[in-house]
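Record format v2
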Amino acid sequence: MASDAMQAHQVWDTDRYQNQHDFVWQYGTALLDLLKVKPGDRILDLGCGTGELTHALAETGAIVSGIDADADMIAVAQQQYPQLSFGVADARTFTLEQAVDGIFSNAVLHWVKPPEQVVQRVANGLKPGGQFVAEFGGRGNVQKIVEAVETVRQRKNLNSWYFPSVGDYAHLLETYGLEVSFAALIDRPTLLKDGDCGLANWLRMFGGQLFVGLSSDDVDIVISGVESLLRSHLYDGSQWHADYRRLRVVAVKR
Ligand code: BEZ
């Protein structure tokens, strides 16, 4: 999912997203069970990316549509799953023709600020009794990686992702009339594909905001420095593991 405000420095390469970072949607399959879907329910996949989880939701018998702010992602989703309905829309401003029974969102909401606008749209889009199931980066997510970049760059506050605590996000949901039935912050070290290149790939795919103002040669130098700093923490001798922490929530519109 790409949101205009957050994505000024983020370019989505759909091939690399699908080939090297398919764990993003694969981890999301665990989330599907939290959405109690009955056949015929209308479900929105908010920030559907290339559509794999939208498709998995449709397999449960739901009537599913997916939206994402990135037109390239949506083009790939539509090509992969022509039978499903996809559209380009921003999580902060989307509107639906009719309210839905569930809104699902995996690994998206840390990209989208301000979060109040997203939660307001979610609340507007749900029927009373409708469920919101989401997982994204929570407080402390990829902290070692961010701190290593800050150390190498000798800069502070490079992280502009939104990684809230359970308390902060539960409060936000309640403010917009969503009753929280489950919320947890979960450490989930995440294997990065491609052996020794895994961390560099991840930083190049997702870390645009950490490198603002640097030439591509300087980005290479920073990445090497970050690898050296983190090798004893996040490298197991053959693969890198990113220090992901997920915020997982289930909430119901009252
Ligand atoms: C995440 O899924 O936690 C994430 C992905 C890219 C950048 C930052 C966080």
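The pocket of benzoic acid is lined by residues 107, 110, 137, 141-142, 161, 206, 244 (CB under 6 Å).
Residues 14-142+161-191+243-253 form a domain with the Rossmann fold fold (CATH 3.40.50.150).
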